[in-house]
Design brief:
The protein has 617 residues and is α/β, with parallel strands linked by helices. The chain has 20 helices and 22 strands. The longest helix is centred in the last third of the chain and has 25 residues, at 505-529.
Length: 617
């Protein structure tokens, strides 16, 4: 019988559920848990070890929380250099078990630091000898595979001879083969590409010690479980296996029972009962207008401090140069910035001498500055964990914050995935026009005027001299109080115009183009509203673009289950969260009941007759 240890629950906001104040809970001793199942609530600072950090990316220095797990001096030194202080709950629970070589099942949401939870102990247990891979990590997407591989490289900084390779579709196959021939210790890959290498004999798993399934439920959702099982059947029986998943559907539980040997079980729960302090919005735009729209957002949305996240180092430089030309005080954080310069940059941001920071995800890891009021996702992040980390830079220390996401027309469909990850909606936002910018400029000027009128100068003797200067100027020029006040405002504003009067035709044209695209989609939807053909009936099924379903998936599944010939299935229309299928009228109820339980892309169809009301979902 498995015992469960439940730790005290910690209530926190949507972002703080992943990133809160460290506690003594993180200082777990190296002994393995006596119980096989450990349940915790994530209420600690997980920024100390991000799931996908890839560079020297923190600005503080203290590694005491990681001592006592049996890590080598080289690894502790690497963590200290990166400023990692305390392990997150899933790390503290997983380290002792994995250091002993146990199999492990971990259930944790994105943003909990699970990559480091398995990467650090597995690196410590690597044997120096051997040419073939000892660790294989399977990830559902190429982006996650790249991030996990970069994490291994970052944590292995004290082992310069250790080789890590990411293998995924779309990359040069021959280059991957050549790297594998030269010798690799850790392979991180997507199931399809890993299978390709194994079938061609270019990935030798004879010396494999550990297999990790990262985001197993996502692999299930994307239809990779059969590929995963094929890979598992080819691996040595005597190996450690680690499985991480945000949820535990029945298929994942079956997989863990079949392939894991007496695993330790860890569950990290995040509570989100407190009000969400971060307002999240998105702007749909054309990429060619990104920089112009960024300038408009900075002018129209007041943020005490701003962080702009870009995908690459080159983009951070391009964006920063554009903002500097527009008169903003800007700094850059990316992988090319030396550590000592990063520390100075963050300190300037904290003190307010720099108000806008343009950064890559990696460089901003561990960044904790209370005065950040606005986060702009200049490039949409590849995964939900990166998005959660980004928006978590604002709304800190009980303050409210704002996050704005830039998406082009094609990227818009990913918003639903991000909304599910954060548990709240991301609202649409119009591109700020001249009127919005001018309104904000006047409000900022009024706020500054109010501050100086109520607080004044600290030096009383200077205040007296200024009053005397005003009186003297008024008498010499015979100015009224209003005229003198206006002169003082003009002096504060400077010679540049206060209000924007630039040509807005491009803005209207861009908006019209986007609306035409959406209108085209709407016209396709109008065909939906006209109803099916006379001899057909329309049904709704609960799979859509988010499940990566294709018309062929639906035709094949429905035809196999119902006995209908594929040509008898009518129009299929796939939307983000559901699809509409036209089937012949008079379908028997027993077949209808079978189709309700039918799974496509590992999701139940839950088929029902379509109506205008149920189409609103």
């Amino acid at each position: 019988m498995t015992n469960t240890t439940t730790h005290e629950e910690v209530s926190c906001s949507v972002v703080e559920s992943f990133e809160s104040t460290p506690s003594d809970q993180g200082k777990t001793q190296p002994q393995p848990s006596k119980s096989k199942s450990i349940e915790k609530v994530d209420g600690q600072n997980t920024d100390s070890i991000p799931g996908e950090a890839t560079e020297d990316d923190s600005v503080e220095s203290n590694s005491s929380g990681f001592e006592g797990f049996g890590f080598s001096p080289q690894l502790l030194k690497t963590l200290e250099k990166k400023g990692y202080k305390e392990p997150s709950p899933i790390q503290a629970a997983a380290f002792p078990e994995l250091m002993l070589g146990r199999d492990l099942v971990g259930q944790a949401q994105t943003g909990t630091g699970k990559t480091a939870a398995f990467a650090l102990p597995l690196l410590e247990r690597l044997q120096e000898s051997g040419k073939f891979p000892q660790i294989l990590v399977l990830a559902p997407t190429r982006e996650l595979a790249m991030q996990v591989a970069d994490s291994f490289k970052a944590y292995a900084a004290g082992h310069p001879h250790l080789k890590v390779l990411a293998v995924y579709g779309g990359a040069d196959f021959r280059n991957q083969i050549n790297t594998l021939k030269r010798g690799v210790n850790v392979v991180v890959g997507t199931p399809g590409r890993v299978m390709d290498h194994m079938r061609q004999g270019t990935l030798n798993t004879s010396e494999l010690k550990t297999l990790v399934l990262d985001e197993a439920d996502e692999m299930l959702r994307m239809g990779f479980i059969d590929d995963v099982e094929w890979i598992l059947e080819q691996l040595p029986e005597d190996r450690q296996m680690v499985l991480f998943s945000a949820t535990m559907p029945n298929e994942i539980r079956r997989l863990s029972k079949k392939y894991l040997n007496d695993p330790a079980e860890i569950t990290i729960k995040a509570k989100t009962n407190e009000p969400r302090l971060i307002r999240q919005r998105y702007i749909t735009l054309q990429n060619s207008y990104k920089l112009e729209i960024l300038n408009r957002v900075l002018e129209a949305v007041t943020g005490e401090g701003v962080i702009i996240f870009a995908r690459t180092k080159l983009i951070t430089i391009t964006v920063a140069e554009s903002l500097e030309a527009a008169g903003h005080d800007v700094a850059v954080l990316n992988g090319d910035v030396p550590q000592n310069q990063r520390e100075r940059t963050v300190e300037r941001l904290r003190k307010g001498t720099v108000n806008v920071l343009v950064a890559t995800d990696v460089a901003a890891r561990g960044l904790d500055v209370d005065r950040i009021g606005l986060v702009i996702n200049y490039d949409i992040p590849f995964d939900s964990e990166a998005y959660i980390h980004r928006i978590g830079r604002t709304g800190r220390a009980g303050r409210s914050g704002e996050a704005i996401l830039f998406v082009n027309y094609r990227e818009k469909r990913f918003i639903g995935t991000l909304e599910r990850a954060v548990g709240t909606s991301i609202e649409p936002m119009e591109i700020p026009d001249n009127a919005a910018i001018n309104k904000n400029r006047l409000e900022r000027l009024q706020k500054r005027l109010h501050t100086w009128a109520t607080e004044g100068r600290e030096q009383k003797e200077e205040t007296a001299l200024l009053k005397q200067l005003l009186k003297q100027t008024s008498e010499e020029l015979e100015l009224s109080y209003e005229d003198l006040s206006l002169a003082a405002l003009n002096l504060a504003i400077g010679s540049e115009p206060l209000l924007v009067q630039s040509d807005e035709r491009w803005l209207k044209e861009s908006t019209q183009r986007l609306r035409r695209k959406e209108g085209s989609l709407g016209r396709r939807n109008e065909r939906t509203l006209r109803g099916p053909d006379e001899n057909m009936e329309r049904f709704r099924v609960e799979v859509g673009h988010r499940d990566r379903v294709k018309p062929g998936n639906l035709v094949g599944a429905i035809a196999n289950e119902s006995g209908l010939h594929g040509r008898m299935i009518g129009r299929i229309q796939i939307f983000d969260t559901f699809s509409l299928v036209d089937l012949p009228k008079g379908m028997p109820e027993d077949i209808f009941d079978c189709l309700k339980r039918l799974k496509v892309m590992n999701r139940e169809l839950r088929i029902q007759r379509d109506s205008h009301e149920n189409r609103q979902g």
